[in-house]
Amino acid sequence: MKRIHVIGAGVEGQEGFSGRALDLINNAALLMGGARQLALFPDFSGETLQIDNNLSQVVENIEKASGTVVVLASGDPLFFGIGRYLLRNLPETDLEFVPNVSSVQYAFSKIREPWDDAIFVSVHGRGLNAAIDQIVAHDKIAVLTDEVNTPQAVARKLIERGRDGYTVYLCEDLGSADERIQQTDVKGLLEIEAAALNVLILIKEYEAGGEGALPGIGIPDESFAAVKKLMTREEIRAICLAKLRLRHDMTLWDVGAGSGAVSIEADHLLPNGRVFAMERNPQSQTYLKQNLNSLGSRNVTLVAEEAPGCFEDLPDPDRVFIGGSGGHLWEILEAVDGRLPPEGRVVLTAVTLDTLTSASEFFENAGYHLEVTTVNIAKTKPFTDYKMFEAFNPVFVVVADKE
Q1: Which of 194, 247, 297, 310 is the most exposed place for a label (fewest CB within 10 A)?
Q2: Does the global pTM surpass 0.85?
Q3: Strand 166-172 and strand 180-185: pairing?
């Protein structure tokens, strides 16, 4: 049986290898690795082979080798490393992995931050959108970048989504004489030309679940930055969220999101789902971005375009909430009907009889099962000498199930 030892190189050069790892390297017939790893062993007496981007040649050379092979990798070979590829293409029993301290571990130690609650994202050779989804869904993230998907590119995407509420540590050239660690924020990353070798650590600025954490449902209206007339009030939100009947992994469209209040509360009910908050008003977009950051939302994506034109690039919804239509209700409902799967549900709020009549007519003609609830709310006014109730305009909550 051929022995293939896949050995991780830490950030400290040869001093970071264990005695056993050095013995395995010195007794190998073939030593393979990147240029930086091979440079650690200039006096190696056996055959050396530099690994480039063509990993299939790595496997071919291993299979042709007549003696013991050592493959040098960075840090832990099974952590976003070559180990996964070798396991897919070589007999598992031929492989032994000898991990070292990874650059991510080293980076967290340098900023004195525990990392057992962090998630790890690699954008190396991948698209950014899926990585950004992961980043915004968590509180502490380590990102491995590349020459295309740079820290600047990550920052731009986060800002586009209105999700710049992170403390950022840019850890460059770790373990070398040029090592540099900078603390900044997401916007500050735009001003930094990062070194090619870096680890990007983002830590959400609020303490998740800590003192002062807001409830999942029933966030006070005063907590939202908003144009108040464009906001779904707290009690109406609670009813609408109950009517939506969300499951943990659903996709929700929030059309006419306004301040994002419904999206942000729905986010807590969709830990494995996605929320798309669609808002065309630039002022409301500004407030929505601010609320996404200050209220710690995770899976909400701002779609700063007008419905229904923005539907085309979105995944099909399981649920749709319509809080505003900008005068295009019928077109929006037609487009929603074309994308909503059977047994999907639409919840719509109306404050005028015109909107109620138009929505009811559409759903009845389209064969939906329709339910309308009228909600009348009166609340006591604070800071007054007498306890009097202030009545709000009635709201019609329309629930339509697609047969």
Answers
A1: 247
A2: no
A3: antiparallel
